[in-house]
Design goal:
InterPro entries: Homeodomain-like_sf, HTH-type_TetR-like_transc_reg, HTH_TetR. With 191 residues, this protein is mostly helical. The protein contains 9 helices and no strands. The radius of gyration is 20 Å and the shape is elongated.
Length: 191
């Protein structure tokens, strides 16, 4: 008779993600994860097969979480430009620069794996669609406003990381408010 799992795969993957974010991708080993979650290394190998498969499963779980968070925020914000800004600000709670920098190391792992890159592309499309929905009643917004806003958001995060003065969410909000104002004013001027 097979033994019952003492810890769910979900809990193991959360522990793996914590290791990735706290100590970097190289720290995710079966030995370190065993110490972190209390299961034996051999049990972890039986569940995930290889370090690469474990890392991929953990990062896929992270994408699932980001998809869920994005959908929840998109459903909660008003369908207007301020709602689009609120959605992106809500996704910007990285904390201090060290946490953001560690997140970039984890993103590097996503970029190396075709399956994880595809998940990123799906998330980009879903995020752009949610942002587009916030501009449906704004006649002056360009057709691809969602992708433009997401790109501005990512740029504002990057520029903040080089000079992390102040709260990242406040920096993002200020940047996006200015971006939307300029973009909508420019579109009005072209009509």
């Amino acid at each position: 008779m097979p033994r019952r799992k003492t810890l769910s795969d979900e809990a193991v993957l959360q522990a793996a993600l914590a290791l990735l974010h706290e100590r970097g991708p190289e720290a995710l080993t079966f030995e370190n994860l065993a110490r972190s979650c209390g299961l034996s290394g051999s049990t972890l190998v039986q569940r995930f097969g290889s370090k690469a498969a474990l890392k991929q499963a953990a990062l896929l779980r992270a994408w699932d979480g980001l998809d869920e968070r994005t959908a929840a925020l998109a459903a909660a914000v008003p369908r207007n430009p301020a709602g689009a800004i609120a959605l992106l600000v809500g996704l910007s709670d990285y904390g201090e620069i060290e946490a953001y920098a560690e997140g970039l190391l984890v993103l590097r792992e996503d970029l190396r794996d075709p399956l994880l890159r595809a998940r990123g592309a799906r998330w980009r499309a879903a995020l752009a669609e949610a942002l587009d929905a916030c501009f449906v009643d704004t006649a002056t917004a360009p057709a691809d406003i969602g992708l433009l806003m997401a790109s501005q958001w990512q740029g504002s995060l990057l520029w903040w990381s080089f000079d992390p003065v102040g709260d990242v969410a406040e920096h993002v909000q200020h940047s996006l408010v200015r971006f939307v104002a300029v973009l909508l004013a420019g579109e009005r001027g072209r009509r």
